[in-house]
Amino acid sequence: MIRKSLLAASAFAAAALVTQAASAADLVRLGNLKFAHYGAVSYMKEIAGKYDLKIEERVFPKGIDILPAIVAGEIDVAASAVDAAIAGRASGVPIYAVAGFAKGGARIVAKPDAGIKSVADLKGKKVATPRGGAQELILLAELAKHGLSWSDRPGKDVQIVYMAYADMNQALLAGSIDAMSQSEPQSSQAINKGFGVEVVKPYDTELGEPVRSLVVTEDFYKKKPDVAQRLVRCFVEATATFIANPDLAEKYVREQMFKGQITSQDFKDAIGNSPYSYDISIEHVQITTDMMQKFGVGRMDNPPKAADWVKLDLLEKAKATKAAANDAAAGTVKAN
Description:
- By secondary structure, the chain is α/β, with parallel strands linked by helices.
- It has 2 domains: 26-103 and 210-331, 3-Layer(aba) Sandwich (D-Maltodextrin-Binding Protein, domain 2), CATH 3.40.190.10; 106-200, Periplasmic binding protein-like II (D-Maltodextrin-Binding Protein, domain 2).
- It has 14 helices and 11 strands.
- α9 (225-244) packs across α10 (246-257).
């Protein structure tokens, strides 16, 4: 009797372990940034269970700061501006771009009393931007278009002052810089609080509106294809949810990401300048690469060819699955 009971207990425990192992969600380690247009990427962790995933998010100051963590094997998927991903790939970081998640998200903002009404008016001024970010590339493209020279030392038409995103607004408020090439929602905050005025949304160069990229490690893409596909499906749903439900997007970004530090108007203005999206193209990544090389952003000895590392198969499958689900839901509603 005791032996039978022990055998039964052992069988039950073994079955429980098998069930637990079968139902354990796959862990995905996400590197993200604290910007309004990165909200849908952050929201993935809230719906990850639906895709049998557990997403652990780690927030970094800048996209290029995520790269060492990828090399160290601490991050599986990351959100960053395309230029940071390009610089990483050029330096040997084993990543693939699998989706885009926002476009735009930049503004050149000046002090209200600086007399700066256009890019041409930046001559003789100090302009801040983060080194190696999308905002630097956009700024340099605008200066070149308007025939202005630049350096991080005095003597050129425009003096570039390299600063972290988090420091630029305070520097503009304090008057230690004349203008800044800033991201969102920080540029909207400067305008709404009255210590900044918009000079231009800098999308009229060959680069157009910069796209943010969702990248995964090569190992994650090659060795865990099923997990990678479920992750991209999760991303597509999170993005579609934010696009369809802007009130939810605002609540999540303002309360969960920024802990009430930005206003409703800040959020609306920020997303108006950096709408959520899914797409990225090989052509856009190649144009960005060429412009980075032209202006010395990222300091690449061997610029990567976009076609070699932009992999859109997971995104196309995820979008097709989402479209089919939407069609089925629409058919059900129509039938009822």
